[in-house]
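Incident log entry.

Two folding requests arrived from the same account within the same minute. Monitoring flagged them as a possible duplicate submission, but the sequences differ. Recording both here for audit purposes.

Request one:
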Amino acid sequence: MSAANTPISNSTVFAPSSNWNEHKSHGHVVQFYSEDEALITGLSSFVGIALNAGDAAIVIATKAHRDALIQSLSLHGVDQSKGLKQVRLIMLDAQETLSKITDDDSWPDAVRFTDIVGGLVDRARAACEGLNPSVVAFGEMVSLLWAEGKSDAAIRLEQLWNELAKRRSFSLRCAYPISGFGRGEHSEPFLKICAEHSNIIPSESYTALNTEPDRLRNISILQQKALALETEMAERREVQRSLQRRESELADILENAIEGVQQVGPDHTVLWANNALLSHLGYSAHEYVGHSLSEFHVRQDVFEAFWAKLMRREDIYDFPAELLCKDGSIKQIVIHSNGLWESDRFVYTRCFVRDVTEQKCLEESLLTAEKQVAMGRVAAIIAHEINNPLETVTNVFYLLREHPSLDEDARELARVASDEIARVRHIAKQTLAFCRDSGSPVPVSLRLVLDAVLEAFRGQAQKSGIVVERRISTDGLVLAFPVEVRQILINLIANAIQAMPSGGTLRVSLRQVTEQMTPGKRPGIRATIADTGVGIPVEHRDKIFQPFFSTKEEKGTGLGLWVSQGIVQKFGGTIRFRSKKSHNGFITSFAVFIPTDATSVSVA
């Protein structure tokens, strides 16, 4: 509506009162109201004056406002029914009309708006009587868009009304609840809305003031409040910036922490995980975040115990668990965790995850080494203690072999017993040599030792129907103790033959290789002993190098592979095995690698 400036003394101008019933062609007035009653009072005057003058009115409003307008017009003696019959009063639903002039994204379409709203103006003007009829229009479609948070669409619709007014003559009013502009971020779009209007009617808290001093006083109060609000908003923005900086710093610390950190929701879903945890496990963010934490725990009973502690509101420290990595490996971890609770509702848990896989391996290695040292001492003591009695027994059998009272058969038995006792003494000496090195290593040809061991087992292999395949491509010269090298090959070949009681194939190979080892690649000799026997059960494969573990029941001591591994490790080498199913059984192979970079010995 058009607002007229009212002059006062000394030419000072203050904000004037505004009335809805001022009709101005091409005028575009906006009212900001607090109560619906103020809106309806002004609107009924605006429409009523037009109808009583024989002009036309278009009202695009909500049902509640249309009903209230009709009631108000009737109370003031305006015959709106006559206007409706003559099509001088057109009343439409704001939401329904809005849906017709906007696209799927609720954006006003210029062509639809012109066709529909422009057509309404033409129709209303045609229904009027007289030579120079006027059309007044009220619309609150813009208010609906603003209430939906679509401020840009509301401003665009205001612009379309203005563009239509350049081609058709009408007086336009629109209205917004002032409560919809209560936030600081509303300031800029509020100013844009005001800029699209020729006049503005403030809320009734201002328009209800009737005297100049009251309005000036009200303006001063509003100015003070605006300044105080602006200062408060500036301070708040500074506080927000400070909080954002702190949040950014905290997020950076957590995201780039060395230890793993994650948040897990009440349904076990991983809500967030930092780079360290994802890197430890090998997953990308989308492969881990959003999935159930239980999917990555190797043992579900452990996960359930962990979760049960959280649900009891316990603070958890150093909780041991195992997590499955993307490559199939398993990480040993410990978890520190506690939950965030709001009253009785569990929100999420904060988990700090530390990878202790290497630490566990070191602890196990240390424990194994301590066991081996202790067993070595025991073995050395036993070997030492039995050596003296063996000397005596050896001498007794030597004397028996030459005693004149014995016949030849008895002497032969005494000789056999003497040889067996000699073997026992040799074993005792080997045990002492294994536990306490004596002398220095010498150049040893693995080929010659392997030939000797195969010859020793030739009869047993033939008796069991075992075919021996040899693939020897090197002399395999290493710096070692011959007795120890022989011990390794005896243990491996004996195990292979025992694994083929019904016959099979024993494959032995010897070749020069370069193997990846810490800290880099090293040249050496690899001896491989393979058999087509019964194989090694999966459940036993992580135990076969443990002392006293044997699958041969009473026939085995469980020390052969353990001793062999100890000797190979003393050389700085490795011993590995593989057991896989083939088309006619299993193929089990043991590969012994002994580095040769510590010596350069040649065979004459």
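Request two (distinct sequence, not a duplicate):
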Amino acid sequence: MKRFLMLLLAVLLALGTTLSALAAAEPSPNAGLVNTDPNSIKVANELVEFSVLARGKPPTNERGTYWWVDFVEKEMNIKLNIEFIDSGVFREKLTILAQTDSLPDLIMASATIWSADVMTWGMEDQLFLAIDKYREYAPRYFAEIEKQPELVAATTTPDGHTYGFSNIRVVNEGQSMGIFTITNTEWLDRLGMEMPTTLDEFYNMLVAFRDEDANGDGDPTNEIPWQGANSGGYPERIFVNWAFGINGYRWDAVDSYTYEGYFSPYHPRYKESIAFMKKCWDEGLFQSTFFSGTGEENFAYGQANTDYTYYGFSVDLDRTQMTGNKDLWSSYSAQIPVIADDSVVRSTWKGLPIDLFTWTINASTKYPEVAVAFLDSFYDPYLSILYTYGPEFGSEYDYYGTGWEYDPETQSMTYPNNTYANKGDYNYVREQNTIMDGATFGLEGSTAAKYYFKDWQYGVGWSEEEARWQKTLAENNFPYEMPQYLDTVFYTDEEKELFDTYRAPLQNYMMAQEALFISGERDWSEFDDYMKELDDMGGQEFNMLLKNKLASHLEMLGIKSPAQLEAEGKAE
């Protein structure tokens, strides 16, 4: 607690300086409500109530309340009147509220409000508060986000404002943000092969897995070289896209050399990518159920056959889900991205270390300064830990005995009064302490712990196998990770209307036709007809929208592509 108060004092001193520097700003009648006492955890000088729409479920514990909600009222002078909405219908509910001018004061909507929504409801309709106008009440948030300039770009709309608070994480040294694929290196070793780095080597590996006794059971016919599921889109295709310089997911694409934006089918090497997948299918390199059933059914099939499979990868599933058996983990390593030829920049998709707009504020709230100061408080490491994990066990804030104990040797939280078999079970945290329902806010949990706990280090407590796996993940993805810039592009109302009109039908048609071409249900000679069909559906218009928006976005950020840098180097 002493540590927290010292941090709070430092922030408040900085806040005083900032307030002086911004004295020319318009005075607010509510500014005096914000508490500036360095010895107090309170946000407001008197009780302030906010209506809240939160992604999650109502409390089901014996108290009928979450610890965090009570903590906020008792200690911070903020009373939250929360309506809980399931994540599956949250956006629909929010849309109705926005259309009927009925938005609550605060909206907790992690992974349910997208950049396009913020553009429409924030910048265009002015329904969300531009928190940068109240920057003096959010010193922690802006200090944290400005440590990573790409996060500033991701959260700033073309009008120069920021319409919400975002969850932030710090990428640790040796930590990969890339989407990984998985290779059975035990099979490679048995066949005397190296991990492939080119598409040809990748193909040769699959053929060897098909034809030779890769699993060592004496039967060279029972291996499945490539296991996965086409259901849901690109979880398998994305790896081959990268090989041709198509860095993207589902409908979107960024060329890894020129940084041009595309609707995927209009990338100049798209057809080659589909052709490679078709060749692998025709030659029996996939599991037979690749195009049938749901993704869950296909992965269940894989788990049932892990004694003799596979080469597999997925953007969504980890090794536990892919293999269904922890004992098999040591057989797999993260795959190095492969390239079709030397004209391609080796790359893999990189996730931004941010969850965009996890909380937004109604522009019409009665107490904007208090709302901003309240949400900013959870970028303090200590308060972020409390929001994420609940109170420290036995502390003055542990009202109900639901708190955690921290083990520095394993960097883990356990709950002495947890009734679950696993004392660190996160279901207990959600049931008793926090409204987050799996969605984080403020500083991401491990980032807050890194800042707050003495001697916290990335990877402490890992098993030998986990350390080995993480090492392959970092070494084989970095430095090939490329941010997916299309994710942070904002659209005007007119552009968003065009985007919404074309994206879903084009993506759905594209995915269906790809499956037909790869599986042979549609003749390869009709590929040009397929492209004409996309044209007739508005594919060219959608492609130009993505191309133009990304070009202006990267120009605004001052980001240059490898092609531009190479040209400048030759010019010199």
